[in-house]
Design brief:
The structure is a single chain. The chain is elongated and about 70 Å long. It is of the alpha/beta class. Strands 1, 2, 5, 6, 7, 8 and 19 form a 7-stranded mixed sheet that branches. It folds into 2 domains: about 5-115 and about 245-330, FAD/NAD(P)-binding domain; about 120-240, 3-Layer(bba) Sandwich (FAD/NAD(P)-binding domain), CATH 3.50.50. The longest helix is centred in the last third of the chain and has 21 residues, at about 290-310. The two termini are about 20 Å apart. It contains 6 helices and 19 strands. The protein binds NADP nicotinamide-adenine-dinucleotide phosphate.
Length: about 325
């Protein structure tokens, strides 16, 4: 059971592949981690169905099952879990303080694995159609659209990469973009524009995703210059309009880039010593389960090394497996 009288050696925020891999490693090194996660344990992967590209599963694995396995593996090494909404993080004092639903937890090292949320169009049924024709990751789901027709929404680098990637499977890819010019960098834009399998619907927005019981069957497209609406038949809709890193809790406390991704150096170290960031929260580029897991491993090892280098303090230290109760009053 999590206990807020303790000072944890390591607290991990987030329970996606980055957070749970960090938990497996820190737990196995007897850093007695506490994982704090929100209402969707397991993160984004639990919203996908089959995952074919996580090594070690030749037949693929269901996203929820993969995350449940990781959780069990972390529990096997003594990881504690607690659910709640983190309302405040204070990195200005040591131990660091994490406020969750009115409780304050303290820790010597913090691993931030809070992920990034794909931006959505705001259409009523798009979330309920996840895994049934709506996707936010072509690398994850493109394989399921062999010889099918798909729509990609967006005009940035991600949309262009996804459109070109999807031509490996789909027989037709239509990019729907709200302006008449792409935001993508020229090299990626040219690659998509010169690909004969990619068509463009300019000055256009997807106004509705059309579906039946088995999933997506088409989209309604609205031309933003003249208001005309048309319907386009398709089997899948890939929404590629950007991600929002979940970093608002760390505003003003950690260095971030212009998009709000936490900046890391030397692996997963942030601008505050003892605080690591792993997974999508610090990675606008790769955003894969396996890269997130890899960086979770790096964060754990760096947290362990940081703990090993701390001078021994009987009031703070909870060396190797025993989180010491402290005399400090509860906040
Ligand atoms: P992005 O650059 O922010 O582009 C988002 C695109 O979605 C824009 O074209 C935007 O339209 C459109 N959009 C946003 N909200 C929309 C809405 N509600 N409805 C319809 N369209 C909407 O995001 P990104 O493409 O994911 O790229 C994020 C960052 O990662 C960028 O810095 C990018 O360079 C980088 N990245 C790099 C690579 C690479 O180098 N290989 C690959 C992927 C991403 P407008 O153009 O009208 O604003």
């Amino acid at each position: 059971m999590p206990n807020n009288n303790l000072i944890y050696e390591t607290i991990i925020l987030g329970s996606g592949p980055a957070g749970l891999t960090a938990a497996i490693y820190t737990g196995r090194s007897r850093c007695c981690p506490l994982v704090i996660h929100g209402r969707q344990p397991g993160g984004q992967l639990t919203t996908t169905t089959q995952i074919d590209n996580f090594p070690g599963f030749p037949q693929g694995i269901d996203g929820s099952e993969l995350m449940e396995n990781m959780r069990l593996q972390a529990e096997r090494f003594g990881t504690n879990f607690t659910e709640g909404e983190v309302t405040r993080v204070d990195l200005g004092e040591r131990p660091f303080r994490i406020c969750v639903d009115g409780q304050t937890y303290r820790c010597l090292t913090l691993i931030i694995a809070t992920g990034a949320t794909p931006k959505l169009l705001g259409l009523g049924n798009e979330e309920s159609l996840y895994g049934r024709g709506v996707s936010v990751c072509a690398t994850c789901d493109g394989f399921f659209y062999r010889d099918k027709e798909v729509v990609v929404v967006g005009g940035g680098d991600t949309a262009m990469e996804e459109a070109v990637f999807l031509t490996r499977f789909a027989k037709k890819v239509t990019v729907v973009h709200r302006r008449d010019a792409l935001r993508a960098t020229p090299v990626l834009a040219d690659r998509a524009l010169s690909n004969k399998q990619v068509e463009f619907s300019w000055d256009s927005m997807v106004s509705e995703i059309v579906a039946d019981q088995s999933g997506v069957t088409g989209v309604r497209i609205k031309n933003v210059t003249n208001g005309e609406e048309t319907e386009l038949r398709c089997d899948g809709v890939f929404i590629a309009i950007g991600h929002q890193p979940n970093t608002s809790l760390f505003d003003g406390q950690l260095d971030m880039d212009d998009e709000g991704y936490i900046q890391t150096g030397n692996g997963t170290e942030t601008s505050v010593r003892g605080v690591m960031a792993a997974g999508d929260v610090q990675d606008p580029q790769f955003r894969q389960a396996i890269t997130a897991a890899g960086s979770g491993c790096m964060a754990a090892i760096q947290a362990e090394r940081y703990l090993d280098d701390l001078p021994y303090d009987p009031n703070l230290s909870c060396k190797k497996g025993i989180c010491k109760e402290t005399n400090r009053e509860q906040e």
